[in-house]
Amino acid sequence: MSDLAKRFATNPIISPRDVKPSREGFEVVCTFNPGAFEFNGRFGLVVRVAERRTTDNESVESLSISRNGEIEFQSFSLTDPKLKSLDSRSFIYNDTEYITTLSHFRLAWSSDGEKFSVEDSPILSGSSDNESFGIEDTRVTKIGSEYFLTYTGVSSNGYGVQMKSTTDWKTFKDFGTVLPPFNKDAVLFDEKINGKYQMLHRPTGSGLGGPYIWSSTSTDLFHWGHHVCVATTRPNMWDSARIGAGSAPIKTEAGWLEIYHGAEVVPTGHTYRLGALLLDLDDPTRVIARSQEPIMEPRSNYETDGFYGNVVFTNGQIVQGDEILLYYGAADTYTCGARFSIKEILNSLKS
């Protein structure tokens, strides 16, 4: 398989040991899947920080945020026959699924795009009923002077798409739940198309269909409709199990270039790789071209070994001319960076 990524020599650029826990008695387990942006001459990342309470090795805990903002714990013995472990990220007890960590967002800043300093306190944490199990994997899209954050809110209701916006990275406007469960991997285009805002997202359900990339439009950013399926999984290929959008599509002369993730079932779980879609400029629900082979796959040890290994997952990028500074989560543990050439990606779609 080809791999077009030019990984940073300094990877991982953010590790759990670099981040201060949000409260006493907690440990940072994962620092990954960052959204990316530029602000006041600096590079910024919105890093997902996953934490758990420091416990013994005889039990597993699930954490949630109560309505008054307090963190509540449920502890389960590892020897309880009602406990079924799915993987490091979640487990089932009495036919109910629980997650093993609680995630919030931290800002990280850099002058060169490689060496980042992470703030000590969360910039955003779960604050609504639909975020009681945390917030995850934000995409950042700048439209005009405003930055829009589309991210996953997790709760007992499921995984839904939340949205906030900011102009100063201090105060935020809350749009609430813009797409209900089960839905995630949502990202806005950075300009209106045919007079409407455009969003890619990934609904999921049981039965017919699957975890595919869809498109929706809106005139006000609150109400979304005109839902169209853009791309599906492909049997017996590297993206056969699930797919999802990455960062905001990049406008090129050839079309909208969207880097997306695809997962394939393997004996140990799933392997996550990256590929590209080329969408029509006037009708981004129409796929012009798609990667036959991934443009990036787990190769380095920090991508193959970790909290959940064999994962490269992106939801953050900064475009500088032909170069994409792509920030990604590695093995569900680290934040890493890589450089891509837009021209090289487009050429790979033609071959």
Automatic annotation (TrEMBL):
One of its GO terms (molecular function) is glycosyltransferase activity. Pfam families: Glyco_hydro_130. Gene3D superfamilies: Glycosyl hydrolase domain, family 43. Keywords: Glycosyltransferase, Transferase. The keyword Transport does not apply. The keyword Glycosyltransferase applies. This is Unannotated protein. It comes from freshwater metagenome.
